[in-house]
Here is the input.
Amino acid sequence: METVENNNKNLVSPDVKDKFNILMEPFFSQYYRERCYPGLIFKQGKRKMLQIHVPAKDLLTLLQAKPSTNNDPDSGKNRPEVKGHADEIKDYIVERASVDKPWVVGTITANVDEDRIILHELGRGVCIVVIPNGVKLDITDGQHRKSAIQALELSAESHLISDDDFAIK
Here is the structure.
Protein backbone atom coordinates (compact mmCIF):
# COMPACT_ATOMS: atom_id res chain seq x y z
CA MET A 1 0.00 0.00 0.00
CA GLU A 2 1.39 3.36 -0.98
CA THR A 3 1.23 6.01 1.71
CA VAL A 4 0.67 9.71 1.16
CA GLU A 5 4.28 10.48 2.07
CA ASN A 6 5.57 8.15 -0.66
CA ASN A 7 3.38 9.54 -3.42
CA ASN A 8 5.69 11.41 -5.78
CA LYS A 9 3.18 11.47 -8.63
CA ASN A 10 1.68 14.81 -7.61
CA LEU A 11 2.05 16.81 -10.78
CA VAL A 12 0.14 19.90 -9.63
CA SER A 13 2.30 22.92 -10.28
CA PRO A 14 3.04 25.45 -7.52
CA ASP A 15 1.15 28.05 -9.57
CA VAL A 16 -2.02 25.92 -9.59
CA LYS A 17 -1.65 25.24 -5.86
CA ASP A 18 -1.34 28.98 -5.20
CA LYS A 19 -4.50 29.69 -7.23
CA PHE A 20 -6.35 26.95 -5.36
CA ASN A 21 -5.29 28.41 -2.00
CA ILE A 22 -6.42 31.87 -3.13
CA LEU A 23 -9.83 30.38 -4.03
CA MET A 24 -10.25 28.49 -0.74
CA GLU A 25 -8.92 30.98 1.82
CA PRO A 26 -11.93 33.36 1.80
CA PHE A 27 -14.25 30.51 2.85
CA PHE A 28 -12.03 29.47 5.74
CA SER A 29 -11.59 33.09 6.83
CA GLN A 30 -15.32 33.85 6.65
CA TYR A 31 -16.32 30.74 8.58
CA TYR A 32 -13.38 30.57 11.00
CA ARG A 33 -15.73 30.21 14.01
CA GLU A 34 -17.63 27.33 12.45
CA ARG A 35 -16.65 23.95 11.07
CA CYS A 36 -15.64 24.38 7.44
CA TYR A 37 -14.45 21.48 5.27
CA PRO A 38 -13.64 20.84 1.63
CA GLY A 39 -16.06 18.25 0.33
CA LEU A 40 -17.25 16.21 -2.59
CA ILE A 41 -20.81 16.13 -3.90
CA PHE A 42 -22.27 13.07 -5.59
CA LYS A 43 -25.68 11.63 -6.27
CA GLN A 44 -26.85 8.21 -5.14
CA GLY A 45 -30.37 6.83 -5.08
CA LYS A 46 -31.86 10.19 -6.10
CA ARG A 47 -30.19 11.82 -3.10
CA LYS A 48 -27.53 14.50 -2.96
CA MET A 49 -24.63 13.08 -0.95
CA LEU A 50 -21.62 14.89 0.51
CA GLN A 51 -18.32 13.53 1.71
CA ILE A 52 -16.03 15.44 4.05
CA HIS A 53 -12.87 14.52 5.94
CA VAL A 54 -12.82 15.63 9.55
CA PRO A 55 -10.00 15.85 12.11
CA ALA A 56 -10.42 13.44 15.03
CA LYS A 57 -10.96 16.30 17.50
CA ASP A 58 -13.98 17.55 15.52
CA LEU A 59 -15.80 14.21 15.74
CA LEU A 60 -16.40 14.79 19.44
CA THR A 61 -18.80 17.66 18.82
CA LEU A 62 -19.89 17.03 15.24
CA LEU A 63 -21.49 13.59 15.41
CA GLN A 64 -24.27 12.18 17.52
CA ALA A 65 -25.56 8.63 17.64
CA LYS A 66 -29.22 7.87 18.04
CA PRO A 67 -29.21 4.11 18.55
CA SER A 68 -32.39 2.14 18.21
CA THR A 69 -33.73 0.11 21.10
CA ASN A 70 -34.59 -3.57 20.83
CA ASN A 71 -33.57 -3.46 17.13
CA ASP A 72 -36.67 -1.36 16.38
CA PRO A 73 -35.68 0.81 13.38
CA ASP A 74 -38.35 3.39 14.27
CA SER A 75 -36.76 4.05 17.67
CA GLY A 76 -33.43 5.39 16.39
CA LYS A 77 -31.19 5.94 13.39
CA ASN A 78 -28.81 2.99 13.84
CA ARG A 79 -28.30 -0.32 15.58
CA PRO A 80 -27.48 -0.32 19.28
CA GLU A 81 -23.78 -0.36 20.12
CA VAL A 82 -22.37 -3.82 20.69
CA LYS A 83 -20.43 -3.87 23.95
CA GLY A 84 -16.71 -4.20 23.33
CA HIS A 85 -16.75 -3.52 19.58
CA ALA A 86 -15.62 0.10 19.91
CA ASP A 87 -12.80 -1.11 22.18
CA GLU A 88 -11.71 -3.58 19.50
CA ILE A 89 -11.52 -0.77 16.94
CA LYS A 90 -9.63 1.49 19.35
CA ASP A 91 -7.20 -1.34 20.18
CA TYR A 92 -6.63 -1.99 16.45
CA ILE A 93 -5.76 1.69 15.85
CA VAL A 94 -3.47 1.88 18.91
CA GLU A 95 -1.74 -1.41 18.07
CA ARG A 96 -0.93 -0.30 14.52
CA ALA A 97 -0.29 3.41 15.12
CA SER A 98 1.98 2.87 18.12
CA VAL A 99 4.45 0.92 15.95
CA ASP A 100 4.05 3.30 12.99
CA LYS A 101 2.10 0.82 10.84
CA PRO A 102 -0.68 1.91 8.47
CA TRP A 103 -4.27 1.49 9.62
CA VAL A 104 -7.68 2.43 8.27
CA VAL A 105 -11.25 2.65 9.50
CA GLY A 106 -14.21 2.88 7.19
CA THR A 107 -16.29 5.91 6.35
CA ILE A 108 -18.86 7.04 8.88
CA THR A 109 -22.28 7.65 7.37
CA ALA A 110 -24.29 10.51 8.83
CA ASN A 111 -27.35 12.54 7.98
CA VAL A 112 -28.34 16.17 8.38
CA ASP A 113 -31.08 18.31 6.91
CA GLU A 114 -29.52 20.31 4.06
CA ASP A 115 -31.18 23.47 5.40
CA ARG A 116 -29.02 23.25 8.54
CA ILE A 117 -25.67 23.46 6.71
CA ILE A 118 -24.15 25.88 4.22
CA LEU A 119 -23.00 24.37 0.94
CA HIS A 120 -20.83 26.28 -1.51
CA GLU A 121 -20.73 24.33 -4.77
CA LEU A 122 -17.52 25.12 -6.65
CA GLY A 123 -18.15 22.90 -9.67
CA ARG A 124 -17.32 19.38 -10.85
CA GLY A 125 -18.53 17.92 -7.57
CA VAL A 126 -16.16 19.96 -5.40
CA CYS A 127 -17.63 22.03 -2.58
CA ILE A 128 -17.10 23.76 0.72
CA VAL A 129 -19.32 22.47 3.52
CA VAL A 130 -19.95 24.75 6.50
CA ILE A 131 -21.53 23.15 9.55
CA PRO A 132 -22.65 25.86 11.97
CA ASN A 133 -21.86 25.49 15.66
CA GLY A 134 -24.57 23.57 17.45
CA VAL A 135 -25.50 21.51 14.37
CA LYS A 136 -24.86 17.81 14.83
CA LEU A 137 -24.84 15.10 12.21
CA ASP A 138 -26.89 12.00 13.05
CA ILE A 139 -24.85 8.83 12.57
CA THR A 140 -26.61 6.21 10.47
CA ASP A 141 -23.61 3.86 10.24
CA GLY A 142 -20.36 4.01 12.17
CA GLN A 143 -21.30 4.59 15.79
CA HIS A 144 -18.66 2.06 16.92
CA ARG A 145 -15.95 3.85 14.91
CA LYS A 146 -17.05 7.20 16.32
CA SER A 147 -16.96 5.83 19.88
CA ALA A 148 -13.51 4.29 19.33
CA ILE A 149 -12.10 7.52 17.89
CA GLN A 150 -13.71 9.56 20.67
CA ALA A 151 -12.28 7.29 23.38
CA LEU A 152 -8.85 7.48 21.78
CA GLU A 153 -9.04 11.26 21.36
CA LEU A 154 -9.87 11.63 25.07
CA SER A 155 -7.11 9.24 26.18
CA ALA A 156 -3.41 9.69 26.91
CA GLU A 157 -2.77 8.12 23.48
CA SER A 158 -4.60 10.86 21.55
CA HIS A 159 -1.31 11.84 19.89
CA LEU A 160 -1.62 8.67 17.79
CA ILE A 161 -4.52 10.17 15.82
CA SER A 162 -3.99 13.91 16.32
CA ASP A 163 -2.98 14.40 12.67
CA ASP A 164 -5.54 12.02 11.19
CA ASP A 165 -8.79 12.78 9.40
CA PHE A 166 -11.87 10.60 9.21
CA ALA A 167 -14.29 10.37 6.30
CA ILE A 168 -17.96 11.19 6.79
CA LYS A 169 -20.51 10.84 4.05
In short: The beta strands are 35-44, 47-55, 63-65, 109-111, 118-123, 126-131, 137-141, 165-168. The CA atoms of residues 3 and 118 lie 32 Å apart. The two ends are 24 Å apart (CA to CA). The chain has one domain: 34-168.
